[in-house]
Design brief:
It comes from Phocaeicola salanitronis (strain DSM 18170 / JCM 13657 / CCUG 60908 / BL78) (Bacteroides salanitronis). The chain has 28 helices and 4 strands. The chain has 770 residues and is mainly alpha-helical. The N and C termini lie far apart (64 Å).
Length: 770
């Protein structure tokens, strides 16, 4: 009883900080009101039926961000009307022989970046409701452009905002590697003609490079809006760049150095002058550059690229200017320098100086500021964190002291097959850690959630050591039975999901013990089922850890998984198809992670691992789409197949795609968050999922031991934690901060429009490399 009381008290204490945080969102509410005031004013006095040139398109990048944050359907409809008016095109010429990319505003300037920024919004609208017409022209233009030998398409700084995010957005949709290859190639050209390596800033174009061109007082003339375009564009690029992109570090370093350079030359009043290093050249405030800088730096802070303590004073001064000087009483945004390409001495820029692109920049900054202010106060995330902590605390607090096997209240199936019950502890620990590893991988911070994470991580690292220490009472059952192969794979998976935070800190003795325990798992001959992936996961982890590994076990598993793929996202569990959720529990995640670990480790064989990975990713996206549609309007999902007491593990591929930021078009992060939250609350609402000791009990939505299979114990059930993978996204991520959205079945059953479904077929072919 004391254990139950202690656990209840800890859980209640964990709730208090979240309740306190939720009581203080006043500044965020004020900023949200500003966003609506500004955007509603703009849309009330400006028709969406205008051309798709850069100035209008830049506004729509801000409008779409306001839509994602607020959920105001009028904002989405406004951008949709604009896109429809422009036939989902930029410049409209269909005669490729006349396509140009020098400056021009007529229809033959198809390759000019100012007519390509519209593709950002078209891509966003496609991701909400996929329809090929929305990105057909974007793909035609960009893929034609990339087929040419030219690399000098981005010859002015504005173009880096206009087109770099187009490349990354279309890469996310198509996974065509050319988008990322050309992104880097084109930016290198831009750097060669207009980037100042000493200042880490961009001249507007080659005409303005110092000393050929100087400001009024003989200084380097960096134009605020020009550099604002670049910093904001880099933030948008980093948002969509895959983690394993070969040149990712190049973009991160450029973004960080540029942010540092920008912050250093902010004016005391919070704005940046038009000529950033010579305030006397064109004195006074300027909003568009200031807003783009504010957005870029806020995004960097929100996603861990920029130090909060260093940059928030800069950001707060900038926001004070934007909200108290630039923002006018009627909702217009003033002090926006008119269309141009440089700081012009004597040009009047005042409270009445407004423009579409300036409003777009203001909206971007304001939305990102709300994400900063509301991080850690989001009710759904608070609920997930509380539930994850409640699930993990009894396991990790005990195991850190070597007392899990002493104190865990064990339950086994009524039809238990007689195997050693000590498998329970290994199943409990391995599966729990595979689910919460991404959450524990987030950096420490001063929030209450951060304190919870830090405590769990500290316990987990001690528990990892005890798990392989033969002298510990919690040394796990590595060397008896066949079952340990399964849960050794989940332990290995936890290391793959948080390699730097959970594997690297372990002492060398503990690491050697893990390698030994993983290696001796080869004594087990896995059955001809999903078990082949357990061997492959372990061996791929060994490869990533730099230990000897068995390539044959990995490649044999890969070949068998390919044979067992039945289509449309489903895998058979062996030669014959079984209608269950093993595509969720094992196939999609462990197949992807096996391939990814080999790529990370730079291992090569006959198999083309990157191509296999891209194909497996596409299948996982389709299956995640299926799972999202399985969530009923009431927050339930179909209950069928064996191992159903694994509960939320059914939703693992959907959670994985959200964490990877690889959700399929038509499935937004917000609707996944809302759908998964609804299921969690429906499943765990009664509290009957936990036994008297605070450990999971056998059942689906409570105590239901009759649904257990012959191999089920209550340690097995910690696989439900695999739905917590999106906790690995920071609290400021759009997954948590975007406005709530109905999931597909909720839309369908309430007469709302929803995307139609269709068959997905493999379009990536793999052949042995030799």
């Amino acid at each position: 009883m004391k254990q139950v009381w202690k656990g209840a008290m800890l859980f209640l204490l964990a709730l208090l900080p979240f309740a306190s945080a939720l009581a203080k969102p006043s500044e965020a509410e004020q900023v949200r009101k500003i966003i609506d005031k500004v955007n509603q004013h703009w849309q009330a006095v400006n028709s969406p039926e205008v051309r798709s040139f850069w100035d209008n398109a830049a506004y729509h990048t801000g409008n779409m961000e306001a839509y994602f944050l607020t959920g105001n359907e009028a904002y989405r409809a406004y951008s949709e009307a604009w896109a429809t008016h422009n036939e989902w095109k930029g410049a409209k010429s269909d005669n490729r022989s006349e396509w140009k990319y020098s400056y021009g505003e007529s229809d033959e300037y198809v390759l000019f970046g100012d007519y390509q920024i519209c593709f950002q919004t078209y891509a966003d609208l496609y991701m909400l409701d996929p329809d090929d017409k929305k990105i057909r022209r974007a793909r035609e233009v960009m893929e034609y452009e990339m087929s040419t030998p030219n690399h000098d398409y981005w010859w002015w700084s504005d173009g880096l905002y206009m087109v770099m995010p187009v490349m990354t957005k279309l890469y996310k949709i198509t996974h065509n590697p050319l988008y990322l290859e050309k992104l880097y190639e084109y930016l290198l050209y831009s750097d060669s003609i207009m980037f100042d390596k000493d200042e880490n800033l961009y001249y507007r174009d080659a005409k303005y490079v110092y000393p050929k061109h100087k400001s009024l007082n003989g200084k380097k003339d960096f134009w605020a809006r020009g550099d604002g375009w670049v910093l904001a564009g880099l933030a948008k690029v980093l948002k969509d760049l895959p983690e394993d992109y070969a040149h990712r570090a190049f973009f991160v370093e450029k973004f960080q150095k540029m942010a540092k350079a920008v912050a250093a030359i902010q004016q005391p009043e919070g704005y940046w002058t038009r000529s950033m290093m010579d305030p006397e050249h064109a004195p006074g405030p300027e909003t568009s550059g200031t807003a783009f800088f504010t957005y870029g730096m806020l995004w960097g802070v929100n996603h861990g690229y920029l130090d909060e303590a260093t940059y928030m004073p800069v950001i707060r001064k900038a926001w004070k200017y934007l909200s108290e000087t630039a923002l006018q009483k009627d909702g217009s945004v003033g002090y926006v320098q008119p269309i141009g390409e440089k700081a012009i001495p004597g040009q009047v820029v005042d409270a009445k100086s407004t423009a579409n692109f300036g409003v777009g920049a203001f909206l971007l900054a304001a939305c990102e500021y709300v994400r900063y202010l509301e991080a850690g106060t989001q009710a759904d995330r608070a609920y997930w964190c509380q539930l994850a902590y409640q699930m993990a605390e009894p396991v990790l607090s005990n195991m850190a002291k070597g007392e899990l096997q002493k104190n865990m209240q064990v339950e086994v199936s009524p039809t238990w097959d007689g195997r050693d019950k000590r498998v329970t502890y290994m199943e409990c620990f391995g599966r729990l850690m595979a689910g919460i590893a991404p959450w524990l991988a987030l950096p420490d911070d001063n929030t209450e959630e951060g304190a919870m994470r830090k405590q769990l991580r500290e316990w987990a690292l001690k528990a990892y050591a005890n798990a392989v220490d033969p002298n510990s009472p919690d040394y796990l059952l590595w060397r008896n039975e066949g079952q340990p192969l399964v849960d050794a794979a989940y332990v290995a998976e936890s290391f793959l999901r948080a390699f730097d935070q959970l594997w690297m800190p372990l002492d060398e003795t503990t690491k050697k013990r893990y390698i030994e325990e993983f290696t001796q798992m080869r004594r087990i001959d896995p059955p001809y089922t999903n078990w082949l992936l357990f061997s492959a996961t372990i061996e791929s982890f060994l490869a990533k850890a730099g230990a000897p590994f068995d390539m044959y076990r990995i490649n044999s598993a890969i070949r068998k998984v390919e044979e067992w793929y039945t289509g449309d996202g489903w895998y058979a569990d062996g030669p014959s198809f079984a209608f269950d959720y093993y595509s969720s529990y094992v196939f999609h995640p462990m197949y992807l992670e096996t391939l990814d670990a080999l790529i990370d480790a730079d291992k090569h064989s006959r198999l083309d691992y990157p191509k296999y990975y891209q194909r497996a990713l596409k299948r996982a996206q389709k299956f995640s789409l299926v799972l999202e549609r399985f969530i009923s309007p009431e927050g339930t999902f179909p209950v069928f197949g064996r191992s159903i007491p694994y509960r939320m593990a059914t939703m693992q591929p959907l959670a994985l795609m959200a964490w990877y930021k690889e959700l399929p078009a038509g499935v937004t992060p917000a609707q996944v968050r809302c759908g998964l939250t609804a299921v969690m609350k429906r499943m765990f609402a009664s509290g009957n999922n936990f036994n008297e000791g605070g450990f999971l009990t056998i059942g689906f939505t409570g105590r239901q031991p009759n649904v257990a299979d012959w191999y089920t114990n209550n340690g097995s059930l910690y696989m439900t934690s695999l739905a917590f993978l999106p906790l690995g996204l920071p609290a400021s991520d759009a997954f948590w901060t975007d406005a709530p959205r109905d999931w597909t079945s909720k839309k369908a059953w309430s007469e709302q429009p929803f995307p139609k479904d269709h068959h997905w077929s493999d379009d990536i072919q793999t052949r042995d490399l030799y």
